[in-house]
Every structure is written in structure tokens, then in C-alpha cells.
Amino acid sequence: MLCQKVRVYSQAVMYSGKHNHNDPVECCLGKIKDASQLRQAFKLLDADFFNDSKILEMAKGAKELNIPIYRANRKLVARENGGLHDPSVLVFNPEWTGEEAQGAPKRFSCPTLSGIQKPERDEDIAFMNVLELGHLIQTKQITSQELTRIFLHRLKKYNHVLESVVSVTEELAYDQAKRADELLGQGIYLGPLHGIPYGLKDIIAVPGYKTTWGSETFKDQVLNMEAWVYKRLKSAGAVLVGKLVTGSLAYDSIWFGGRTRNPWNIEEFITGSSAGPAACTSAGMVPFAIGSETAGSITYPAARCGVTALRPTFGTVGRTGVMSISESLDKLGPFCRTAADCAFILDVIRGKDPDDLSSKDITLHDPFSVDITKLTVGYLEDAEMEVVQVLQLMGVNVVQFKLNYTVDSVQGILNLMMDVDMLAHFDEWQRSGQDDVYEAQDKWPPELRRARIVPAVDYLQAQRARGKLIQEVRGNFTVDAFIGNATDWERVCMGNLVGMPVIVVPTGFKSISDPPPANSRRRTTITTGIYAPPQHDHIALALAMAYQSVTDHHKQRPPIDDLGPDDSIPSHSELCTHQDNSVFKKQGFQDAVELEILEL
Fold it and tell me: Which residues belong to the active site?
């Protein structure tokens, strides 16, 4: 019904006394006799306060002046979907202090390790953090090619049940690993990521491989461009082993190949479009991965899968070659085993991307040099108190805190802006009817139809309301950082509108709902978020590193190989019935293991 109203409005506003009978829109307009036929359409815009003569005047002006401009602009910049080219010149700047980086940003002082020995089992190697793996490579206890083989094997082995991988980039991975080994043999060491395998969310372009955006419509798409973040990682010697699942067009976890599952409880689906990076990092299928967030797609999957992940300050990481939802909200960030891994991976991928107007050389202090005893950290009512108590024992001044602001439409502001921005990048997708075959018909299709009738004036009013929110949050952010739930929806919306960083930190486990009678090892992960003001990512990272230095929640492994003596992975049909997943098409876990043995 809404879609029909949109079409009526599109036709009605082009009213004219003269008709082109080859144009179906004008043929329809010829039937309009008075302003009353247009007034209902104006109600959809909350603009039915005009009298009849003004409505007819507006309709005539729209047809003669506005619509030709609309069409000319679409012809110039909207023929391709995804927002990969011709970015908006309206740029969001999240900074509060006015502090500008002078020259190239100063790099972090990555800690050095000693005494790390290569484990005997591949399983144990797979769950080492990046710093530890880097030490093994630098000391030549393992080659990048050997390490790459381990993670390629795990990607193939567990993808059958987790549905978390779109493409295994095996040929490219071995080429990059071989190059890393050759450089090390020549005495050239590129740093902690030298020879380390990783995965990219499949909205990030890599030449020669499909970049599907998780959508049936684009599942064969190959973009012959290198995303900026991929270039940064490649120059640091990292080895790409897989393009990982994104929810279709970066919405939730449903994609054209199924729906991604939680390694800690495989009956459960992951929430958030960076599902593949979260699941693969959690399951030891990659040591780290790069995901993205517009509104919760880093925080929600990380919390569900119990991994450490950073949503950095807006503009910290360049987005050239990445599918765009909203140019003033989209951010790229790492999924890792530890906060320390997040810190030096951020150090590698941050910086000014010349083709991304929003990116900049943000001044970040070294998180490895922060004296946390000089910090005042607030905790909200929903903070995990273990984190608060641990940091307090480590000398942090912790205080009760509440971030107050008067703007009461935060969630609506984000949704309206995000939907309009997304439609600008997928205008042709909607106009050509491709939304009719979208994987989740209750997600983008109705949202973007609503976005079609958002007046430009009210979009700008939403931006002004966002500005008011930012000023109020800035004025009331009276601590150095605060601790609170990372998946509270109001806080997710507020944080993304403001552009503030947050790191998701695992803090424990609890029993799954409706567990088997006894002895199941499946768990629900517990996490919290550590938030800092924009351009103070180093504060959140330092606090998370301090907490993880004396706890081991982040070191736990999901039970995908051993659920317990009284638990078993449901069959294909049981999974489909239990969660009504009509696109789940894989075999069960046991079949996957048997298939993997056959492949070996």
C-alpha cells in the first residue's frame, strides 16, 4: 500500500496542462482535475497545510523544474548501486577538541613478546592472538604459508555449519603468504601483521574476487578495485584468506547463502551484518577480521560471539572500495581476540584515505602508553560490575555516571538519515524492482520505500537535531570514558550519530535458554562496552587491555567440536524448524566433518 502511495505521489507532483502521451506518468496526470487529488499525497509529507492554488502551483513547478533536475542528477551519479563513486561533498566531522594532526600520525609502540613457543596442535595455534602469531613468524617457528594452510583448513571445515564465509581466497592467500616468507628470508620484516591471515567483510572490494554485498542480486559481482583498507593491510604483509559473510546489503545476518550462526550456540543466529567477521574470529577460522558498522553491525555480532571488537571514531579508517549505507555513519573496525590486537590493527588501517572525504589523520595517543591510574571512568547502571571492580583495583578512579541529553528522538534520527542515505546509494536498485527479490522482505525494501517520501527539508532537520545531540553529549561527557552495555539500542544510535568509539569486551558466560537436560557446553556470552569521546579511542583501548591483562574471558574457545556428552548439534531439518530459517541449505556439523575428511 505504501509503495502504491509513493507511485501516486511521484505521478501527482508532475501535473501539467500539456501531456506527452508517450510518458505514462503524464498520461496519468492528465486525469487530475483539481488539487484535492494531490492533497492526500501531500499528507504523506506532513505538508497538507497549503491551499489548492499553491498545491497546483507546486505541482506545475515540480514537473517543469524539479523533475528534470532529479533525472539529470540520477543520470550523472546514480546509475551504479553501492555508493562506490561520486561521494557527497557534505562531510560529517565528529571531533570535539579542534586538535588537528600535524603531518603523518605517530604510530603506536607495539609491545614485543618473548618466550612464545609454537604449540604442537593446529587447534592451539588457531586460537593464538595476532601478537603471538607474529612472534612465531618473526622468530621463524612457523612460516606464513604453514599458518595460512591452518586457517584455510578451518574456514572450509566450519563454514558448513556456521555459514560465515562467502569466498575462500585460497590462491591469493598462498601468493601473499609466499611473498611474506620470501621477504622475511631477505631480512625484511613488515611488522606485527607480516604473514598473518585475516578475513574481510564481503562489502570490501578485492580485485579478482566476488564482492557480493551478501545479496542474490550482486552475488556474481566482481569489482576491479582495491579497497583502501585492503591496501593498508596488504602493505603491512597481512594475508587475505577469505571474504566473510555480510548480511544482504549490510543488513542483519541473512544473506543469499543462508544465515550465519553463533559458534558459542549454533542453534542461535547472529544479529548484525558483520556476522561473518564475528563468527570466524570467534571460531578460530581467522586471527582477526575487518567488519563495518552503521548502526550496531560491529557491536551486536561481537557481543553475540564473545569477541573483542572496536568501533573506532568516525573517519578514522578510509572507506574507498566499500559498499556505502551512509557516508556520515559508516565505519570500519577490527574483530580480534584481544584489545591489544585491536589497537595495532587500528594503527595499521587508520589514516587519511585520499578518496574518502570523511577520513582524516586523526590524532590518537599511544594506547600502550596510557597511565590508566590518571583516568576517571564512569559506569552506567547496566555496566558489567566485574569490569568496574577490576579496573578500580588497578588504580582507575571509577564513579557512577549517566550520560544525559534532552534529544528524545535519537533512534528516529538515525533511522531516517540512514534510510535516506542508503536509498541514494541504491536508487537504481529500487527503481528497477530488484528490491522485490531481496532476501529479507521485512528489512530494506519497506524502509527504503518510506525513505522515498522523506522531504529534503525534514532530512536536514534531522541533521540539525543530530547536531543538537552532539553538543549535549559533548557537554555532559564529564569523564574520560564510561562502561555500559554495548548493545543497548538507544546507546548504539547515540554513539553512531555522535561518532564516538566503543570497544566490546567479553566478560563471561551464562547458560543458554532452554538448554539440553545436562552437560551442554553451549553458552551465551556476556560482554560490555567501554566508550570514549571521539578521537580518544586510545583511552577505551587502554582500559580494555588493562582488564584483559588480568582476566581470561577473551581466551575461551567456543564448543563447536564438543558440545558435551548430553548435547548434539541438531539436524538440518531441526534447525530449519526451530528458527524458521527457510534459506538454511547446508548439511549438519557431522556431515561437514565427514566432508572435510574426504577433502583431505
Answer: 201, 273, 297
